[in-house]
Design goal:
By secondary structure, the protein is α/β, with parallel strands linked by helices. It is 27% helix and 27% strand. Helix 1 packs parallel to helix 8. It binds flavin-adenine dinucleotide (FAD).
């Protein structure tokens, strides 16, 4: 049976579009399915991405999509992939509009979802002044009063790192700190305060934080807050096909971006804790080439 497409890419953001470009230029017939919900969509400006530093995420995506769509063998579907199965050596992908397409290879570039605590103001400020990464946004809030929302080992390590960007730092552990006495001493030695009082609200204007309110009625004036939230895979279709996850919840891949299921690849945030546009784009680029090589080796 002949497949409708050589490759279906699920997720058409940075990693997915990057793979689509490599495959389009390799003369492959590609379908990109994208639900249009990249994880950085709320952030006003993307940084630390050479050639596009300070651009809006929407501008970068639109430019990428325009360039990819110049290849007539790359097709784009705005919507969600809802089911995936293998049939007769091909992958069958169904969409939210009831359509079904087949392909020889599959790439998941579906990203992750940050699971935020139910504290008013955090979700609204995510990517604006509640930040995931100092390399992406630390420069803009350097030397400003800043909090870190984390506890234990994660909070300690995060505090060490953010101390590079600002010395006005408070670690908010939102309950018992789970820090060792050595860690508490080390933090104090760098004038990093630790506050264990539960956080009840993040007060902000259009996502820009002014202060954090605590359960005991006190408050802390800050301009930025870093946080590491738990995450889940945006798309569970890789697991439904049998792709293994790592102990941390990422899709397990090898150095070729191949998952544990033959013919299925993954790239971008769904595979790594190193979360940046350039890393996602590099992974998509590699996935595109590796998928093409696999097909060349099968066909030659
Ligand atoms: C708040 C925030 C700010 C950031 N700021 C920066 C920055 O300034 N600089 C920087 O370098 N990095 C930044 N990053 C990191 C960067 O945004 C990510 O590394 C990058 O977006 C990952 O690209 P991706 O393609 O893997 O996933 P994403 O960009 O998250 O895209 C995944 C895509 O897959 C789609 N999708 C998922 N499931 C399905 C499905 N079943 N069917 C169809 N489509 C589906 C989604 O809708 C989405 O469009 C930021 C991240 C966050 C969270």
């Amino acid at each position: 049976m002949k497949a409708d497409f050589d490759v279906i890419i699920i997720g058409g953001s940075y990693a997915g579009l990057s793979a689509a470009m490599a495959l389009g230029r390799a003369l492959r017939n590609v379908l990109v399915i994208d639900a249009g919900q990249p994880c950085n969509r709320q952030t006003p400006h993307a940084h630390n991405f050479i050639t596009n530093d300070g651009e809006t995420p929407a501008t970068i995506s639109a430019k990428a999509r325009k360039q990819v769509m110049q290849y007539p063998n790359v097709h784009f579907y705005n919507g969600t992939a809802t089911a995936a199965r293998e049939n007769d050596g091909l992958f069958v992908i169904e969409t939210d509009k009831g359509e079904s397409n087949t392909s020889r290879k599959l790439l998941f570039a579906t990203g992750i979802v940050d699971v935020m605590p139910a504290i008013p103001g955090i979700e609204q400020s995510w990517g604006i002044s509640v930040l995931h990464c100092p390399y992406c946004h630390g420069y803009e809030v350097r030397n400003q009063p800043t909090a870190i929302f984390a506890s234990g080992e994660v909070g300690f390590e995060f505090a060490k790192i953010i101390n590079n960007w600002t010395k006005e730092l408070t670690l908010l552990t939102n309950g018992p700190s789970q820090l060792t006495s050595e860690q508490i001493t080390a933090l104090a030695g760098h004038n990093i305060s630790v506050n264990e009082t539960p956080v009840t609200k993040v007060n902000h204007q259009d996502g820009y934080i002014s202060n954090v309110a605590f359960a005991d009625g006190s408050g802390l004036a800050i301009n930025a807050m870093y946080a590491k939230f738990p995450f889940r895979q945006t798309c569970e279709l890789p697991q439904s096909l049998g792709c293994a996850l790592t102990e941390h919840g990422f899709i397990k891949i090898d150095e070729m971006q191949a998952t544990t299921v033959n013919g299925v690849f993954a790239a971008g945030d769904n595979t790594t804790m190193f979360r940046s546009l350039s890393i996602a784009i590099a992974a998509g680029n590699r996935a595109g080439a590796m998928i093409n090589h696999q097909m060349i080796n099968e066909d030659f």
